[in-house]
Amino acid sequence: MVRNPLTADERHRGLVLGRLLQQARAGRSAAAVAFEAGISLDTLRKIERGAIATPAFFTVAALARVLGLDLTTLAEALTDDEARVA
Description:
With 86 residues, the chain is mainly alpha-helical. 70% of the residues lie in helices and 0% in strands. The chain is built from five helices and no strands. The N and C termini lie far apart (31 Å). The mean pLDDT is 90.
């Protein structure tokens, strides 16, 4: 399967998502959060640094659950940041 290249906006949104997740993780270890969310530590690290700019919905939902983030609030934060950049 060939994927279309990500747009600059998608890459930026991925970086913002990663930053939000890192902030929500606060003092918790990445390994503990990844384990609780049922994803690999490598995947979490890639999401946090923006290397996976468009993670699967269920991955984001699992991380939001573990970190106590509301998905609507998370989506609004990403949308608000996108509007500021535009």
